[in-house]
Design brief:
Length: 337
């Protein structure tokens, strides 16, 4: 009996692998996934195997209303199907050629972060109010729509606004300065106003649905990342819960970035460190959780004569450095207006 069952499982796996190679797979082809669970998966927006393979079991369990054990079996089956395993550094290098770099509008700033804002990565910009975080986000929302050969990503943009900072009139001004149709540019920016941290988290599911529907999203902007979490989780007693939710939020953004080859730009608030006796006491909110999750970290501050100074705090491949740029009537630039 055991031998017969083992033989049947082997035949099923061979059939699934054969369908996978031909690109003819369906969700119900996965071992342990029948037509009922397949329907639940489709209704929850899981039409792609990679989305299943990288999903935490607890999250999938909640999304499709099955036990965590069943969810884990589905995820393991999807991973086996996709043959997710170690790869050579050379093969990894080839995959990195898919990365697109979105220009900021400033050559100085582009050079500082390695040629532009990368897809498959999170760029965090933190600094005091008025340092240019939102202005950079609005500029990127326009530049991401440009053709790739012009420093864009030829796609749409998601803008999650937690502080009421999105201004269509400024977007139009920047679009006209680039010779673009302002109405078309605004139409390609999908804006959502998040009113609390739960709403902010919920919007991630909406983004997943849009991506699964085939929307050509190339940039997600969150302005700002920590505003609601900072306001709602007050005191040391709530710190662990806040950090856990922030960690999960950022890892979901990173998963989207990797899976769909899109860029993520998040702005972050700051605080003054009272223990700092000498030097700049400015510290980003979110602690090590945000620091470790961000691929690139930029510290923005005001400089002399209306300039802005950008300092690269952290990068996996670039040295710490800083540069100067300007916020002008026509956008982010290397020259003063």
């Amino acid at each position: 009996m055991a031998e017969k069952k083992e033989k049947k499982e082997k035949e099923d796996e061979e059939e699934v692998e054969e369908k996978g190679e031909k690109g003819e797979y369906e969700l119900k082809d996965l071992p342990g996934v029948g037509s009922t669970i397949a329907k639940k998966l489709e209704e929850a927006g899981f039409t792609d195997l990679m989305a299943l393979a990288v999903m935490p079991p607890a999250e999938l369990s909640q999304a499709i209303d099955v036990s965590e054990g069943v969810a884990r079996k589905i995820i393991v089956a999807a991973r086996k199907f996709l043959k997710l395993d170690f790869d050579t550094g050379l093969a990894y290098e080839k995959r990195r050629k898919e990365i697109i770099k979105i220009t900021t509008g400033s050559k100085n700033l582009d050079n500082l972060i390695g040629g532009g804002v990368e897809t498959k990565a999170i760029l965090e910009a933190f600094g005091a109010f008025g340092c240019g975080k939102t202005q950079l986000g609005l500029q990127l929302a326009i530049n991401a729509q440009l053709p790739i050969e012009e420093g864009g990503a030829n796609g749409k943009v998601i803008f999650i606004d937690t502080e009421g900072t999105f201004r269509p009139e400024r977007v139009k001004q920047l679009a006209i300065a680039k010779g673009l149709d302002p109405e078309k540019v605004l139409n390609n920016i999908l804006v959502a106003r998040a009113f609390n941290s739960d709403h902010q988290i919920l919007l991630l599911d909406k983004i997943r649905d849009l991506l699964n529907q085939g929307e050509p999203i190339r940039l997600i902007i969150v302005d700002s990342l920590t505003s609601h979490f900072r306001a709602e989780y007050v005191g040391r007693g709530t710190l662990a819960d806040r950090q856990q939710k922030l960690n999960k939020y950022l890892h979901t953004l990173m998963r989207y970035a990797e899976q769909y080859n899109l860029a993520v730009y998040v702005t972050n608030q700051v605080m003054a460190d009272p223990a700092m006796m000498f030097g700049d006491p400015t510290r980003a909110i979110g602690g090590h959780i945000v620091g470790h999750a961000s691929t690139y970290r930029l510290y923005l501050r005001r400089g002399k004569q209306n300039s802005r100074i950008a300092k690269l705090i952290d990068s996996p491949n670039l040295p710490d450095n800083e540069t100067v740029f300007f916020i002008t009537s026509y956008g982010i630039s290397d020259k003063e207006d």
